[in-house]
Every structure is written in structure tokens, then in C-alpha cells.
Amino acid sequence: MAADTTSITASALPDPAQEAGGAWGFTRAQLGALGVLIVFLAVAPFMLYPVFLMKLLCFALFACAFNLLIGYVGLLSFGHAAYFGMGGYLAGHAAKVWGLTPELAIIVGAVTAGLLGTIAGWIAIRRQGIYFAMITLALAQMVYFFCVQAPFTGGEDGIQAIPRGSLFGVIPLDQDMTMYWLVAGIFLGAFLLIHRIIHSPYGQVLKSIRENEPRATSLGYRTDDYKLLAFILSATIAGTAGATKSIVFGIATLTDVHWSMSGEVVLMTLVGGLGTVFGPVIGAAVIVTMQNYLAEMGAWVTVIQGVIFVTCVLAFRRGLVGEIAAMLKVKL
Amino acid sequence: MDEIFGIPAPLLFGQLLLGLINGAFYAMLSLGLAVIFGLLNIVNMAHGAQFMMGAFAAWMLLAWGGIGYWWALLLSPLIVGTIGVILEKLFISKLYKLDHLYGLLLTFGLALIIEGVFRNEFGSSGLPYRIPAELSGAWDFGFMFMPVYRGWVVVAALVLCLTTWLLIEKTRLGAYLRAATENAALVQAFGVNVPRMVTLTYGAGVALAAIGGVLAAPIYSVNPQMGSNLIIVVFAVVVIGGMGSILGSILTGFTLGIVEGLTKVFWPEASATVIFVIMAIVLLARPAGLFGRK
Amino acid sequence: MSIQRRDLLAAGAVTALGGLPRARAQGTQTIRIGVITDMSGPYRDTTGPGSVVLTQQAVQDFLGGGRGFQVEVLQADHQNKPDVGANIARQWFDQGVDAVVDLPTSSVALAVNQIAREKNKVHLNSGAATSDLTGAQCSPNTVHWTYDTYMLAKSTGAAIVKTGGDSWFFITADYAFGHALERDTGNFVRAQGGRVLGNARYPFPATTDFSAFLLQAQASRAKVLGLANASTDTVNCIKGAREFGLHRSMKLAALLMGVVDVKSLGLESGQGLLLTESFYWDLNDRTRALTQRVRPKNQDRPPAMVPAGCYGATLHYLKSVADMGVAAAKASGVEAVNRMKAMPCDDDAFGQGTIRADGRKIHPGYLFEVKTPGESRNPWDLYKVVATTPGEEAFRPLAEGGCPLVRS
Predict the structure, then answer these.
(1) Which residues in chain C have Cβ-Cβ distances shorter than 8 Å to A145?
(2) In Å, how far from its chain's centre is CA B288?
(3) Closest chain C C-alpha to B146 CA, distance in angstroms
(4) At residue C223, what are phi and psi to the nearest 5 degrees?
(5) Phi/psi at B146 (nearest 5 deg)?
(6) Predicted ipTM?
(7) Tally of structural domains, chain A
(8) Is Transferase among the key words of this record (chain C) (predicted)?
(9) Domains of chain C (ranges plus CATH)?
């Protein structure tokens, strides 16, 4: 049965390298979309609720980090909440207890998530496909149990009243707008970084591993090293997203390390389009908006999420962005 | 020999027995997962939800139909198994040509829907289900008090697991199953209706989860989230055992139950994580799992 | 009421897309109360829809006299996620909601506590257990109405020792909440001359089978088994205890448990269990009268403790608003809470009481024993009162909480 399966993200779309007119590894369509994204980031806070936007951007970044693994290496991690949540806890602890400035706190969170990713990745990359998914889930569950018991996380109460502080010790972030520009900056920086990684020679090797690992091995690539590095990068960026979120909201709690958060990020990426550059951003926007406005629906939110999962898998495997791209015959 | 490593011997034996009971649930659930995985190549993320549905079916039969435990033990797996068959026909069968990960995502979505619907309908605090009169009471072993029902769970689980194993390894039907796992196209060519076999196999795997649910109903609170925490541990059990092997998953299930039980005596704080730690160690030493091929 | 709610939701959508709905804010004669609760998670049955119904009942009972202003009740599900709860509160406050009610789950309550203070609105907490709300993290914008961990520990621990249960063993969920309950209860047991013989801490939330710990408890030969955990864990512990015959030699004391849990457990397994609540529907004529009014709207169930707290807190808040004037109450959450503290409380659920400077509502704690199936006369006839701890003794003394409001 294995012979006639198709890769989860391989799409019948033109290869970007063959498409002329782009720059910095972007196709022309992607450049256009990037322009729209940047304009949106600049205009949105004047139209929409900035706190809501910041939440959206944190989750968008988280989804992009997750997409780096599933979309370009073909590894489905079902435990990414561990890195997101741990990044949040450590950043919160650093800002509140150690009194670090927000940018340092976020770095502490990101590095911690990266270290955690190194250990988990080292264990998990020994298996592929569904085994990989189950192993990452189990390891993340361990991290969750650790967070419930460890004194510094505050158990069920979480870390509360994390100060936003002042950027570099000089620019106070108490105003939502100031905070927003920082979050938008972090998001855009990390987004471009991910893009840069994918289009580097290293990224090309990752894609070749996704398409055919034995062949990549036979060409002399130590595929495990490549996969591990991708895992660490993904975990670090997920940690950055979590760390930023805890600084924005002033709280870090068990929600962000729970397995349902791992499921949510899968859902966001799936809705937007696995393996597309802009898909995770759109997917995160859809899911976060939905959660915000369906809060009154109570338990039906879970059901609706499940229905979206099922619908996406059965009918929209390319996701929103993937479908649009296919319709326009471009790569997004 | 009154004490072993500073723990009174009776307490230790008691804990070993209790570990065996937990192991029985691990074994039953990982067995169902292994059966489904073996033929469908799908990690059934809805397995925990189906375990929960088994328990709820037993409760509904009693509360709404006045049908007792023994009939529930038969009817509940039939009902839930049938639902499984419908799910397979409607949804899962559409995915066999795709990456296995889609199966995982789909069943995860199904699990969310099922749990959400049950929570809306029955709330979250759980429903009571009484131990059947024939199995209430307890044996006094001198060193411990052993509830009859817990003993029954171990026996029932063992019988169920061994029957399944015999069915798959020693019968003609089992031979077809195993053959289809190896090469579905070839078996189809011999005139076996493979799609129907696949559907029924999924139904049977789901039914196994449902029986687990009925057995659990009198001991644990019957509530919508009863399966979701258990299932992650079962995934780890399955990874440790290696998923291809039926006997392997049974043995691993019982063994890990006992290991966990012992951890509760010597280092209770670690009892939640011990299975995950073992999983990590096994992966480092034998990536394919203890009984896995490849 | 549903139409008004839809209006406000629409207003919410507008806010997300463009400026604040100033036009609506001019109609100052409406007080908006938002119930933020758990509609989908583990506390749904003890809070959730019941809290909404009881809050609406408070509004109805209050407006019965004709007060010259309107009250609107909104509801939302925080899904037990602090960031979701905080987001809802933040948006609601920005859109003209004056008070939020209920907030079960400590992490959500503490997060919303910060926001209510920042926006100078009112936080009427009923569902959260943490005593930090009136301690280290107390706020001039917050009233903590129904119960807290200290009160549960005090009422259960001290009262049981007085009735002869002087040696204890604890089964404790291994996280902050469980530790706090075990520590506080243990202290009261010792203070009354009792002894704590041992404890077993189990991993939370990974444990479904408690028999290992029950055997240890049995081996300790303590007279009382204290369960320092909550909801499903407690129910599973009690079921197991009955199976393993613990009830023959020990009394079981659940440190956090309510009628809904007892109902789900069933009297067969639950009989003889000791637990503390600050409200029970069959306590006196007034609670029975309230139950009669509310029961048809509440899925034919009597109100549970946390929803009853929402009733009491909302009613008292509305009385204070009427007393000080709607405009003044809308202008400052601190002033509204100050007025609540200045006025004596009186409602059908909790009777007469007061609110302390740290925001703690003071009323008695009741130690209940779960009835046997033979004693129970109707499906919700579950408790009998064993002991009553008066309000002044039930809660943590003002000076010990470390609340900054008290020092100044």
C-alpha cells in the first residue's frame, strides 16, 4: 500500500525556480502576497483591535514554525505545544523573576525551546511518519507533566502579571500600539528567516529528503543531521512565538503546553495549506478569529474544529491558500 | 522476607496486582490500535473517544433501556463497532491512497467531534455506573483486599487479547488478514473482498476499544474526557511494543502496567512519566520497538 | 435578552473592524454584566450554564421592583484558557461591559483580575478556588464571593477533628492547588490536636487509577482519608475507596466537591462522605424558595454552589449600583466595589453577610455528610449538615492574607 501513496505536501504546482520574475527566492505571486501582508501589518492596528492582532500574529508565527517541519521536511510533529509553551514560561519567568528586558526574555524563551527541541528531535527523528507524530506527542506530554509539577510555572495558576517592561530598557511597551509594532517586527523577521532557510541550499536538501529520503542518503547527505537541525529551528521559532505571546498578555499557563494546543497548530496549518508560505498565516487568522467570535458557542467550538479538520482532510487538502494558488496557477 | 527494598511485601504484591489491572486496559487499547494499524496503516486517534463511547453506550443501555452490564458487554461493542464501520465507509476509506498522516488528522478531527458532542449532551462531571451485583464484593487475600470486579477485568482482558491473537494467527480469516497486510492487491486478485475486510477490521478494532470502555465504566467515572488522557499513554505503549505485532502489543501493555504500578510504590511522582521515559530509551536502543520488524 | 446580546455581539464585530461604539456608550442607563465561565470543559456542570441562569435570576429578582435602569447579561466560554478569558474580558470592558461574573479556574480568574483592575471595572468572582484573589493578588476591583481553598480546608479539617476524626491520611494531586489544600487542612487538623499520618501525591492529571494510593492509605490505619483534589479525580478516588473497602475503617473527606459531583458519583458510592460547601439548596426556607424560582430554567436541577454565588454577587452589585447611581457605578469599578463593601449583604442564597476590605465575602461554611440511599427522599436530597463554621472563623483572617489593600 505504501507504493501508491502521495506525500502529504507534494503539490502539482510549478517549481519556483522555474518561474521567472521573482526575487530573493520569492516568486512574483509571492512577492505580491508579501506586499499585501506588509501593508496589512502596517494598516491593521488602526482598523482592528491591536491585542487581538498580536494574538493572531503570535499564532501565525507558531504555525509558520510548525509548517517548516511538515511542509518542507514532511515531518508531522504532534507535540509542538511543548516548545511554544516552554518558550512562554521561560520568557515569563525571565521577565518577572529575573527582571530581564522583554527582548532578552524572548531570547531566553526561544533558546530554551531550541534546547528542548534538540533533545526531543534527537529522539524523535529515529522514526518517520505516524511514529514520529506519536513520539513527539508522547514527549510533549512529558513536558506538560513537568510544567504541572515544576514550582516555577505556578502549576494551574500559571505565571501571572508578567511585566511588558521596556524594549532595550528604554522604550516602554505598556501601550498596545508600541507593543504591536514590536510583535509585528518579530513576526515579519521570523517569517522572512523561515523563507530564507527554505530557499538556502540547506532548504533544498530538506525538500529532497521530503521527496525521497533514501535517494538523498545515497547522494551522501547525512539526512538525520538535516532533519534534526530543521527540528531545532522549528522548535526555536515556536518558542519565540510562545515567548512573545506571554510578554504581550502577561500570562504563561498550562494551556499553551497542553496537547490540544498541538492539535490547534496542526489545524491552523492544515486550514491555511500545508507547505505553502502564506498558508499558516491565513490558517492562524481563520482559527483565532473563529475562537474569538464563537466563544459564546461553548462546547460547540471543539465540535466545529473537528468538523473543519474532517472537511479539510477530505475535501480541501491543499488548504485555503493552496486552493487559491492552484486556481491562479501560482505558488503562494 | 517481610520487606523488599524497604516496602512491606504484602503492599508490593498488592501493587503488582493493581499494575496488572491497568496493564489490562493498556493491552486492550493497544491491541485495537495494532489491529487497525496492521491492516489500514492508520493511527486511530479516535480510539480514546471510541473507548469513551463504549462506556457511555453501557450507561445509556442501563439508564434508558434498563439493559444490564452483561448484555451491555455484548451490545455496546456491537453498537460502537457499527458506528466505526460507518465512519470507515464514509470517511476513512477515502484516504487509503494518501499519506498515512491524513488518516491521523482525520481521526483526530473525529475524536474532537465525538468528545464535543458528548460534552454538550452529558456535561463533563461524569455519570455513575454500578458494579454488577455478581461481581461486587471483594476477596480478602490476607495481604490485601482484592475487589472481585478488578479480578474480572484482568481475566476478561486476558481472554479477549488471547482470542484476538488466536483469531489472527491461527485461523483462515486471520491468514487472509495477514496476507492483505502484506499485499492487498494480490489477496484481492485471489477473490477476497479486501475493502470489506478492511472495513470490518476497523469495526473490530473499534469494538475492542468499546469493550474496554464497558469494562472501565464501573471503576472509573463515565465522562467525555475519560479516553483522551489514557490514549496518549497507549500511544507510547504502542511505540514501545512496535506496532506491527499483535502479541507484542499485548505483552507490552501488561508489562508496562506492572512497571507503572511499581513506580507508584517506589517513586509516585514519576509514575506519570515512567512510560514515556521507557519509550525514549527503547527508541534510542531499538528504534523499531521491542517487537517491531524493520 | 437574547436580542440584546446579539446586538452587543454585532457591536463587538464593529469594534474589531473600526472604532468603539460610542453611540451605544451614551445610553448610560444600562448596566452590562458578562458571565465568563466554563461552558465546555471539566467545570461545565458545576459552573457554566447554571451560572448564567442564576445571574439572570438575580437580575430578574432585582428588577422586579422597577429600578429605572436596564440590565443586560452576556455570556462567554473561556474554555479554561487564561488568554481566551483575558481576551473576552478585555474586549467586553472596552465595549462597555461594567462587570464580569463567575470566572472559574484560578488561572483565568487571576488573569482577568489584572485586566479588571487595569480598566477599572468590576470582577465578581464565584468559581475560582485560589485564596490569592484576596491575598497577595487582591485588587480593589474584585469581590471573591463563594469559597476559597482556605475556607474549605478550615471547615473540613477543623470540624472533622472536633467530631473525633483525629488521624488523617491525604491523597493529593501533585500540583499547587492540591498542595495548598493538603497543607492548609493538615495545619487545621494539627491545630485541633489531630495528627497527619502520611500522604500520597499522585501525578496530575495523568492518573486515572487510584487504587495504589488507596492501598497505602488503608495501610496507614488513619481514621480520615482527605482527598486533596477535584472533580473526576475525587469521584474516581471515592469509587475506588468503596471497592477496596476503605469505608469500613475510614471516613472519607473530599476537600473540594459539590452536589453535582455527588450526584454523578451516586449515593451508593458516596454515602458517608464529608465535604464543605457554602451553599446547599435545601439549607433553609430562603434557599428552597430560590430553588423553586430557578429550577424550571436550570434543566430542572437545583442550583449548585458556584452559580448560587453568581446570584448573590450579582444581586448585591446591582443593589450597590442602584444606591450610588448608574452613572457613578459605570464610571469607576473601584467605587462600585467600595459601595458593595460598605453595604451589608442579604440574599436568598447566602443570607446576611459582609464584604471585607480585601474583597472577601464573609458567610458561614457548612460541613455536610452525604446521605445514605435510605435517607434520601428525592433525587437531589443528598446532604445533611454536620457542622457550621461561622463566617468570622471560616475565612482567612484579614491580617494573614498579605493583601496590599489592607496594609494601606
Answers:
(1) 203, 206
(2) 21
(3) 7
(4) -85, -30
(5) -110, 110
(6) 0.83
(7) 1
(8) no
(9) 2-147+284-363 (3.40.50.2300), 150-277+364-394 (3.40.50.2300)
